[in-house]
Design brief:
The chain is mainly α. It folds into two domains: about 5-105, no CATH class; about 125-320, no CATH class. It contains 13 helices and four strands. The protein has helices at about 25-40, 45-55, 65-80, 85-95, 100-125, 125-145, 145-170, 195-225, 225-240, 250-255, 260-280, 280-295, 305-320; strands at about 5, 10, 180, 185. β1 (about 5) and β2 form a beta hairpin.
Length: about 325
């Protein structure tokens, strides 16, 4: 099923702009490339800046005004590089300004994280989410203590907001996350999804964001040395790995649904490899159900990107959760 623009128009996979409202399909990526290119230009790194603008050009419709503006910038950079001594100066500047490019990349990442943080905070404005989250936190505080309970609540919330973010991107209406002690949390859709690829994107978005939460906790452990952060990181990895079990309404089932038979067997192979490397026992369950799904008569049309995402999650989450069995 084609992706949808924010205005509701269905978009073909290769389309670069909405034919109805004119919105650019890759606007977020274009903003990132523009910021990095401007930073490289200010740091006297014209070769890197030209390469970044060239990448941006491929994401713009040929007839658009932005396409013409960027062609002009590429032409100006090319002339500057091709001037006598310009190319040698450009190479020298690239070497001297490496730290500036690293700083620019770090600034871009910080900006993206700030944007995601703003989106995450928006979810807490829903009374149903906030109240159910507080009740969930209270239950697990009495069992595990408040630090681990808080880490558990936040990691599950980030996982669920990954689903919400993908639903928004696809133009599918949904409710806010609702926490249920003993089960986790759910996001209720307000419309039925029938396309396997769309369902896979929605399903795997949760573990992808969950992996990000786990890696953030792991980073805090390295920065502070506090074992509670390490425990939160491992628990987050374990819970998201559990969600990859390809059964019922779990995220793994929605992800594997679009894969064809050969791709499902590749997932099984990845699970076996991850099991041998990490000895994470949850993979026995994930793998056993994956074998059952691979042997089913009905399979999906196949999708290489979903396959790559699923395999990456299997390995990354297994390593993150290797201490939890």
């Amino acid at each position: 099923m084609p992706d949808r623009c924010q205005c509701g128009t269905e978009l073909a996979p290769a389309i670069l702009a909405c034919p109805v409202c004119g919105a650019l399909t890759h606007s977020d990526r274009l903003k990132q490339l523009a910021a990095e290119a401007d930073a490289c230009a200010r740091a006297s790194s014209p070769l890197a800046a030209r390469d970044l603008w060239t990448q941006a050009l491929e994401l713009l419709p040929a007839h658009s005004q932005q396409h013409a503006v960027i062609r002009g910038r590429i032409a100006d950079l090319t002339r500057a590089i091709d001037e006598p001594g310009g190319r040698e100066h450009a190479r020298t500047s690239e070497g001297k300004a490496w730290w500036v490019r690293v700083a620019a990349g770090a600034g871009t990442i910080a900006l993206l994280l700030a944007t995601k943080l703003k989106f995450l905070l928006l979810g807490l404005t829903k009374a149903s989410t906030f109240v159910s989250m507080f009740a969930f936190f209270g239950v697990y505080w009495s069992i595990y203590g408040w630090p681990l309970a808080l880490g558990l609540v936040v990691s599950i919330y980030i996982h669920e907001m990954g689903h919400v973010a993908m639903l928004r991107r696809l133009g599918i209406a949904s409710g806010a996350p609702l926490f249920i002690p003993g089960m986790g949390a759910v996001v209720m859709l307000k419309q039925h999804v029938t396309d396997a690829l769309t369902d896979a994107k929605i399903g795997l978005a949760g573990p992808v964001w969950g992996l990000g939460a786990g890696l953030a906790a792991l980073l805090m452990y390295f920065l502070t040395g506090s074992m509670i952060w390490f425990a939160i990181a491992q628990l987050t990895g374990f819970l998201n790995l559990f969600n990859l079990i390809p059964v019922w309404q779990l995220d793994g089932s929605r992800g594997i649904g679009v894969l064809d038979r050969s791709e499902r067997w590749l997932v099984v192979g990845a699970i076996v490899a991850a099991l041998m490397l990490t000895e994470q026992k949850m993979l026995f369950i994930v793998g056993a159900v994956a074998v059952w799904r691979a042997m089913q008569g009905e399979t999906g049309p196949g999708n290489a990107r979903v396959l790559a995402t699923f395999v990456t999650l299997v390995f990354a989450l297994s390593f993150l959760a290797r201490g939890v069995n």
